[in-house]
Design goal:
This protein has 258 residues and is α/β, with parallel strands linked by helices. It has one domain (2-255): Metal-dependent hydrolases (TIM Barrel, Alpha-Beta Barrel). It has ten helices and eight strands. Strands 1-2-3-4-5-6-7-8 form an eight-stranded parallel beta sheet. The two termini are 28 Å apart. Bound molecules: zinc ion. Residues 6, 8, 39, 96, 205 line the site of zinc ion.
Length: 258
């Protein structure tokens, strides 16, 4: 049992499956994946993701706008619009939202405002936010605190222990991607060791960041057990145990209602 809490189901390379996403999902199930959260990067993504999620009981999705999108696209994500889209029961979370000063420093005030609106929608709808942060850790923590967000995932975690502790204190879950399996990621594994087992999640972030031994190849949900395997070594557990624990954590996160 493994839950891929972050996969871009509309961006996968489906060439090996003759363009058929259902086959890619089936291969993932055959590898033990029991749940998938498809992630939006623009509001328009909800159309395709809703179609997928309503055909597959084990697929849910998010609604939101990524901080690397243009200002105009970010502005479409009003609180009202986000909350309205989240009426669909297959919407499990908002995002991915957050701050990215690595790819874009042009729209920092827009990124901050857009992130805050996702948090506001999260609080109204009672569904968590999926947060992306890059080269912006202090501002990310500041907004989570200022907006009193207590229901979220810091996804594809690559930050330091101080950042991990700060978001854990806010009630957040921390999700690791294939990066934690990379040879040169010892610092990240040292941080992972301190994340409480009951706040741990795993993801592929596919089609990006394939875990070892597929590093450099296009990623897909069926590889999420390899993320579990990398964490298993850190915690002294089996990959299956990490899969069970993180799947259980994800259920808890979705069931929290504030
Ligand atoms: Zn992503």
């Amino acid at each position: 049992m493994f839950t891929d809490t972050h996969c871009h189901l509309t961006m996968l390379n489906l060439a090996p499956y003759a363009g058929d996403l259902d086959q890619a999902l089936q291969e993932a199930r055959d590898a033990g994946v029991t749940k998938f959260m498809g992630i939006s990067v623009t509001l328009d993504d909800h159309v395709a993701l809703a179609e997928i999620a309503h055909r597959h009981a084990d697929v849910g999705y998010t609604v939101g706008v990524h901080p690397c999108e243009d200002r105009e696209i970010m502005q479409q994500a009003t609180v009202e619009h986000l909350v309205e889209l989240a009426q669909d029961s297959k919407v499990w979370a908002f995002g991915e939202t957050g701050l990215d000063y690595y790819h874009s420093v042009d729209y920092i005030p827009d990124q901050k405002a857009c992130f805050a609106r996702h948090i506001e929608a999260s609080k109204i709808a009672g569904k968590p936010v999926v947060v992306h942060t890059r080269s912006a850790k202090q501002d990310t923590i500041d907004i989570i605190r200022a907006e009193q967000s207590r229901h979220g995932i810091l996804h594809c975690f690559t930050e330091d222990l101080t950042t991990a502790k700060a978001v854990l204190d806010c009630g957040y879950y921390i999700s690791f991607s294939g990066i934690v399996s990379f040879k040169n990621a010892q610092d990240l594994r040292d941080v992972a060791r301190y994340v409480p087992l009951d706040r741990l999640l795993i993801e592929t972030d596919s089609p990006y960041l394939a875990p070892v031994p597929y590093r450099g190849k296009t990623n897909e949900p069926k590889y999420v057990p390899f993320v579990a395997r990398a964490l298993a070594d850190i915690y002294g557990l089996t990959a299956e145990e990490i899969g069970f624990i993180t799947s259980h954590n994800f259920e808890n996160l979705l069931n929290i209602r504030y």
